[in-house]
Amino acid sequence: MAKDVFQQNKLTITGAQAQTLDQARMRVIWVVMVLMMGYLAIGLRMGELSILHHKNMEASAGKSDMADTKPLRASIVDRNGNLIAASLKMASVYADTTMIDTPADLAKKLSAILPEQTYDDLLDKLSSGKEFIWIQRDITPKQEYAINALGNPALSFQEETRRIYPDAGLTAHIIGYTDVDGNGIAGIEKYFNKQLIEANKPLKLTIDLRIQHIMHRELAEAVKKFHAKDGVGMVMDVNTGEIISMVSLPDFDPNHVGAVTDDSKFNRATLGVFEMGSTFKLFSTAAALDSGKVHFSSIFDATDPIKIGRFKISDYHAQHRPLTVPEIFIYSSNIGTAKMADSLGENSLKDFYKSMGFMTQAPIELPERGTPLYPSPWKEVNTLTASFGHGIAVSPLHLIRAASALVNGGIMPRSTLVIPEKRDNLSLTPEGERVVSAETSDKMRQLLELVVADGTGTKAWVDGYDVGGKTGTAEKNINGGYEHNASLSSFIGVFPIQAPQYAVLAILDEPQGTPDTHGFSTGGWTAAPVVANVIEQMGPLYQIPPDMDRGKKDIEKEMAAYLKDFKEGSTLASLGTDH
User: What is the pTM of this model?
Assistant: First the structure.
């Protein structure tokens, strides 16, 4: 019975409502299909966007990585690899001042974090209404952390690079400095700007920071002791032309150039040109000996001054008698030197000076190079005065380079601040043009040695190191006239003089005499001790073995053969000075 009822109801549903039920079923199926297709479309689109976004992220990451891995400006190191200049990543902080509600409050907080900024300056910046304004560039990590801790959304950071000079002013005039964007403005930084931007390895200089420290200290002490206006000190390898040390005082800190004066920035070693006085007798004497017309035994009458119009050439250490060439050099006779130069013939000295590089800028990897001043046209009187360093002005670099040529065998070295990538470090053969014969070079070494052993440069004597050299004191040309009380005092030394390796130069501008110098302020008293102190420390540092068996008397005996009337045992050192 029950079974019959069930069968009846089933038939009724399938029969009476079958069509409606089938339609409903079809609608459900279509709805499900539409929904599935919609979900599928959305899924495909999401997948597409995800893939594209990932590719874009990769591209952005690649660009970002490229930016992050962009090499910093190359470092600069000394000849031993010690760091002189380097670039570091640092943060700079800026502000969107339109987002600041209380500028005064924020200025107060920032002034406590940034001592370089005053409250008033910060308040002006934060009240400017600008969407972008620098608050301070190149802040320290500690300052960045403190500013970030303020939690002010108006403040943001940008990563930049800053050039750092660990030794501050020690090499300032050599290295120069960069601007805030890392572009070279002066010195090596400017000369090699493109290379330093593109290079992936440090630029190695010829400078030895150890010798630079020694020269800087000794020169600074002399400037202070003698109340000099400024000073120059240099050390050069006479064979390769490499500059081991270059100091110009006053100097400056390249880390903080904003308040530095132009006078401090001025590189007196390469850009300044000066009348060098008696150190120029090195070159007029070499010209005479190299000409073949003049020999050690040649005699020139230095009895009376030379009169030129209303002027006259006289001697500071007048002997009032005829002098041999070595005596002219030892006594630094202006009269004898002028007559010796005049005997060479018209323009001979001028041509020799030109060959020594005294009429063009000296070669050096610096943009700061001085142009020599010399008479034009060159007249007969100019030969006389230029023979003892008056009327011609050159840079200290010119002087030490030319002096190196006179003692290294006669070859003019190319002065340089950069060690070449390929060089035989064991080679001591200078590269350049021959300017004097090897024989003339040998004679000049003998004269230089005698000046220090028993002449006016005895303050430069260093036991065991056979120093040779020449003093110089030039009255400064001020407003067209020579000022007797304003002089440039100098000393150029060479050691070891028997086999020269290094030339050492010291110059003091307007030094004042002291009780220790008996009131003298000339090169023999003021500049020569600087050179001696540098050599005394440099010799052992460079492992140059001292020769303790050869003393002053031995040098005098060796020179006696060249001076017929040279009196062994005479003490030219008693002169104590040189003009």
Answer: 0.80
